[in-house]
Amino acid sequence: MFEPYESPAGGWGALRAVARALREQSVVLKGSETLLSMNQPDGFDCPGCAWPDPKHTSSFEFCENGAKAVSFELTKRKVTREFFAAHTVSELERQSDYWLEEQGRLTEPMRYNGATDHWSARLMAILPYNSLKIWTK
Asked: Of 17, 120, 100, which is closest to residue 62 (Cα–Cα)?
């Protein structure tokens, strides 16, 4: 599964891996633009680490794993209620993290049903703003 890697970390190999991740998630343009905002003073912090905020930044303040995390967050792939109807939680637990990540992002709130061992869509009521007082008492 793992092969020895003798090349330096970073460099052209990392750049190819980032480009491949953006391409696989179909977010080449959007992902590239987003990466230029990562770890920047007016941007956002890396979702995969705690990169320190230097006083002087370059345009490329991210690592390969951070870039991959952003590409997964931007993916167009969606995991819908039909996906969860087709797979029990026990089945999903046997899948690799990579396989689960490749399925996509949740599209609605979910809740676990222990009787069926499935995640199911959780109905959310949309309430007018003033009715929130009921829930806080």
From this structure: 17
